[in-house]
Amino acid sequence: MKLMTPQTPTRPIWEAQGDEKRREVRGMFSAIAPTYDRANAVMSFNFHQRWRKFAASKLDLQLGESVLDLCTGTGDFLPIHRTTVGESGVVIGIDFCAPMLEKAVGKDSAATLTIGDACSIPLQDQSVDGVSVGWGIRNVPDIDRAHREINRVLKPGKRFVSVDCAEPRAALIRIATNVFRTPALGLLGKLVGSSDAYKYLSESTARFKSREELAASMRSAGFVDVHYKDLMFGNICVHWGTKP
Predict the structure, then answer these.
(1) DSSP class of residue 14?
(2) How far apart are the two ends of the chain, measured CA to CA in Å?
(3) Which CATH superfamily is 17-167+209-242 part of?
(4) CA-derived radius of gyration, the chain
(5) How far is CA 164 from CA 85, 136, 159, 199, 204, in A?
(6) Strands, DSSP E only, in the chain?
(7) Which residues contact 61 (CB under 8 A, 6 or more apart)?
(8) What does the pLDDT read at residue 129?
(9) Distance between CA atoms of 117 and 104, rounded to whole angstroms?
(10) Alpha helices of 108-235 — where are they, by DSSP H?
(11) Is the dihedral of CA 139, 153, 241, 232 positive or negative?
(12) Would you kindly state where each structural domain of the chain is located, as residue ranges?
């Protein structure tokens, strides 16, 4: 008689924690790296560049300064930062997913690109004049630790900014968004060949920290003058704060 070993159900990626989440998210982004930029443009109606520019403006960077784009992905923040700090400035992109980072190479030829983890940033203390994160914090297994690491590498008086998806606060807009988002992301996932990845985007947004919870995490990490602003009817939220 052949004995059957029961299989342990694999839980959805959005329920993963710790190293499991790190491993699953890295694998997911590796799979969608070839189509990520195109999907991002479609999903945001190409507004994501405008949102990035607004977020970058909150860093108040100057010519010749240094800036880190953490969880840089395919590097869309890199040319925006280069425009601000100029050729004499330093632009660094760090991501834990090599296939995504490979797509960032052509976005700013002078940028320094490094594989690294947001929970253990491979930079010296007080080494950069600004840090940005675009649609990355919710993918980090320990958000509080990532905020502490960001605070560590920032110079005193300098800023951190994060832009990400959010749940709209207005009830009618939230209902309309939820009705639209799940099937739209499912269709997009099928078009680019990764339904699970875009289902993760929908689920992780719904389970993400609230605006005030994220702001509280930043304050606990040592940031002051923490603010946030909604964009796109509350579907996008930008947080920023200053290291004292």
Answers:
(1) G
(2) 69
(3) Vaccinia Virus protein VP39 (3.40.50.150)
(4) 18
(5) 23, 7, 17, 16, 11
(6) 66-70, 90-95, 112-115, 128-134, 154-165, 224-231, 236-242
(7) 67, 81, 84, 85, 89, 129, 130
(8) 99
(9) 17
(10) 143-153, 171-192, 195-207, 211-220
(11) negative
(12) 17-167+209-242
Q: Amino acid identity, residue 99?
A: P
| Partner residues linked to 69 by β-bridges | 93, 132
Taking every pair of C-alpha atoms in the chain, what is the biggest distance, in angstroms?
74
Taking 70 as the pLDDT cut, the residues of the chain under it are: 1-18, 182-198, 202
Query: What is the reported pTM?
Result: 0.88
* Three-class secondary structure of residue 158 per DSSP: strand
In what order do the strands lie in the sheet containing 128-134?
A: 112-115, 90-95, 66-70, 128-134, 154-165, 236-242, 224-231
Number of Cβ within a 10 Å radius of residue 193: 11
Q: Which of 102, 92, 94 is nearest to 118 (CA)?
A: 94
- The amino acid occupying position 176 is A
Look up residue 87 and give its two tokens. 């050729």
CB 105 within 8 A of CB 35: no
